[in-house]
Amino acid sequence: MDIIKKFNIPLIAVGAMILLLLVFKAGVFVGYKKASFSYKWGENYHMNFADFINAHGIFGPIIKIDGNIIIVKSKSSAETAVLISEATIIRRGRETIKPADLKTDDRIVIIGSPNDQGQIEAKLIRLFKKTHE
Fold first, then answer.
1. pTM of the model as a whole
2. 108 within 8 A of 72, measured Cβ to Cβ
3. What is the pLDDT of residues 35-81, one digit of tens each?
4. For domain 54-127, which CATH number applies: 2.40.50.140, 3.40.50.300, 3.40.50.1100, 3.40.50.1260?
C-alpha cells in the first residue's frame, strides 16, 4: 500500500505533463492552420480581387448625366467621362440601385477601366451618403 502511494504522485505528475503537452500540440496545430490560411490568402491576393487589379477610378461629384455617360469632377477639378453599361454595379450602402437613381451633385467613387475614347468604363460605382452642412 505504501508503494502505491509513493508512485501515485509521480504518476499523476507524468499524466498531467502528457496532458499539457497534448494541449500544447493541439494549439500549435490550430495556429499552424490559421497561419497557413492567412499566408495562402495573401499569396493569392491578386486572384481574390482579380476584377479590380488593373482598375482605374475617380472620386467626386456628378456634374452632368447624359444617357449612359456621366461626367464626374475630380478633386483636381478635372472632368472625366464615365461610361455605364448593363454590367456596371451601382451601390448605395448595401443596396444595389439603377443608373436612373443617380443625380447631379451625388458624390461617387468609380472603379473601372479606360477605353479608347478616354472614358472610364465603370465596373463599380458607389454612392457616398450625403453630409449635412
1. 0.56
2. yes
3. 887 777 666 655 555 545 455 788 899 999 999 999 999 888 889 99
4. 2.40.50.140
For residue 121, give the nearest of 74, 87, 76, 77 by alpha carbon: 87
Annotate 26-57 with DSSP letters as a single string.
HHHHHHHHHHHHHHHHHHTHHHHTGGGTT-EE
**Domain map of the chain by residue range?**
2-48, 54-127
Helix (H, G, I), strand (E, B) or coil at 123: strand
DSSP letter for 100, please: G
CB 60 within 8 A of CB 110: no
DSSP 8-state code for residue 77 = S
Residues 15-35 as b or e (16 or more Cβ within 10 Å = b)? eeeeeeeeeeeeeeeeeeeee
Q: Which of 129, 130, 47, 57 is nearest to 94 (CA)?
A: 129
